[in-house]
Every structure is written in structure tokens, then in C-alpha cells.
Specification:
This protein is mainly α. It has helices at residues 8-24, 80-100, 106-117, 131-149, 157-163, 169-183, and strands spanning 35-36, 54-55, 58-59, 61-62, 65-68, 71-74. The strands form 3 sheets. It has a two-stranded parallel sheet with strand order 1-4. Strands 2-3 form a two-stranded antiparallel ribbon. A two-stranded antiparallel sheet has the order 5-6. Helix 2 (80-100) packs antiparallel against helix 3, helix 2 runs parallel beside helix 4 (131-149) and helix 3 packs antiparallel against helix 4 (131-149).
């Protein structure tokens, strides 16, 4: 559960409401798993002092980063960490496919690549990142496909994707972003 509040006082009221609900329904919050974050304002300003925020009498720990539903959220709303998480996960998935399915046909490899390497979970939420971070993810995507298909490292990315009818990195990002906008 995530609680969002514009002020510390409002957050206290939300936590009080959660405490009374838990008490009424016989629930107990695991305070060691609860934490709070203060988002920085434009320009990176954030108050150093914060009053004690507690749940069931236990003080909550302040964090600058947390993982929610697989997505890293930072107090400055920067997406670098989440893009790096996705890059590492993509590298693992590509390696598993390349090692486990090296002797399969190109059609099988293409189908597996589309299913396991075009996920980019939460990429439609990325808005604050550097081109270098996104470029590193794109390179990982391209190299993973080359490795899986047994292609030379210097072959054209656009050519290799076009030949087997696989979307390139930027097409996937555009599609996922457009899909989110349509749903919203």
C-alpha cells in the first residue's frame, strides 16, 4: 500500500486512519517493512529536518529510494536507477535464452525474444533520464538479439530486426507509451 500526502500532518491523519482500520479488523502492520519518502521539489530542494512519522507507535524510517511493484522510485523522481534495473534484467534474460536455446530455429528464437526481451516493465513511466542511460538499454537490447541469433557484433541493428520482423528498441518504447496514454 502506498499513501501519498501533500504534508506531514495529512500523512499523520492517513496513518491514524490506517491504524484504526487495522485495529477494528484485527490486522497488524509490520512496521519494519514500512518507510516514508519526501519527494524533492523542483531544483532538488528538500527539508533536512522531518518530524517523527510513526505507525502503531513505531518510528518509520526515511528512505530516498524504494522499489514499488518492481519499479524503482527515487525522491528526485529520476529514472536512471529503474532503467539500469531493466538493463540488467534484460542482460540476464538474453543470456538465458542464448544459452538454453542456441540450437533452436530462428523462428523459435525470434518468438522467445519477443516474449521475454521486449517486456520493458514500466518504461512508459520513464520521463526523467539521460540519453546515455536509455542508450545503454538500447545497446543491451540490440546485442542481446545479436547474441541469441548468432549474428556478428557489427551487423546493422535496423537490418537484423527488419529481416525477422522484430520491433527495434525505440518502436517498443513508443508503443508502450502510446498504450499507456490510450488507457489513461
Amino acid at each position: 500500500m502506498v499513501l501519498l500526502s501533500p504534508t506531514v500532518r495529512a500523512l499523520g491523519e492517513l496513518l491514524t486512519s490506517c491504524e484504526s482500520y487495522a485495529l477494528k479488523h484485527g490486522l497488524i502492520y509490520n512496521v519494519t517493512k514500512n518507510e516514508f519518502m519526501v519527494f524533492k521539489a523542483d531544483g532538488g530542494k528538500c527539508p533536512e529536518y522531518m518530524p517523527v512519522i510513526s505507525l502503531n507507535g513505531s518510528e518509520l524510517k526515511r528512505v530516498h529510494t524504494f522499489k514499488y511493484l518492481g519499479h524503482y522510485v527515487t525522491d528526485d523522481l529520476d529514472d536512471q536507477m529503474d532503467i539500469e534495473r531493466e538493463r540488467k534484467a534484460l542482460a540476464v534474460r538474453c543470456n538465458v535464452l542464448a544459452r538454453g536455446f542456441a540450437r533452436c530455429s530462428a523462428d523459435v528464437k525470434t518468438t522467445l525474444f519477443k516474449a521475454y526481451c521486449q517486456v520493458f516493465y514500466t518504461c512508459s513511466l520513464w520521463v526523467n533520464y539521460t540519453q546515455q542511460a536509455l542508450g545503454a538499454l538500447r545497446i543491451q537490447y540490440n546485442n542481446g538479439f545479436r547474441m541469441l541469433m548468432g549474428l556478428p557484433w557489427l551487423c546493422s541493428a535496423s537490418g537484423m530486426f527488419t529481416t525477422v520482423n522484430v520491433s527495434d528498441f525505440y518502436a517498443i518504447i513508443r508503443h508502450k507509451s502510446a498504450s499507456l496514454l490510450c488507457r489513461v
